[in-house]
Amino acid sequence: MAPTHTQLASLSDEELVVRYDRDAQCTVVGTGFYREELTRRVLARESGRALALTKTMARLTWAILVLTVINVLAVLYPLLVKA
User: Fold this and answer.
1) Please, are residues 11 and 19 in contact by the beta-carbon 8 Å criterion?
2) So what's the pLDDT on residue 9?
3) What angle do CA 66, 68, 69 make, to 5 degrees?
4) In this predicted structure, what is the pLDDT of residue 48?
5) Dmax over Cα atoms in the chain, in whole Å?
6) Hey, where are the domains in the chain?
């Protein structure tokens, strides 16, 4: 018998792994099971790449901001010194 949603949500990751391993010993799976696992792994890799890209974009944004401020100061300084 399958656990209720509340019971399932209350289990820790370790408890879920133990139950999965126990139930997998007497369960027959089809090829869809393996396709789903491959899809899950691809999505996990792509999520990691997306996170890395997001961090890179944030660093580049800060670099552009710093360079823009330096550029503005470089343009304004001579104008303010003449005044």
Assistant:
1) yes
2) 94
3) 65
4) 96
5) 86
6) 9-82
Q: Tokens 């391993």 — which residue?
A: 21
Q: Is residue 58 a contact partner of residue 50, using CB atoms and an 8 Å limit? A: no
Amino acid at 62: W
> Structure tokens of 46?
């792509």
pLDDT at residue 83 in the model: 64
Per-residue pLDDT of the chain (83 residues; tens, 9 = 90+): 888 999 999 999 999 999 999 999 999 999 999 999 999 999 999 999 999 999 999 999 999 999 999 999 999 999 988 86
**Cβ neighbours of 34 (radius 10 Å):** 10
Contacts of 8 (CB under 8 A, 6+ apart): 16
DSSP H helices, 1-83, are: 5-10, 13-24, 31-82
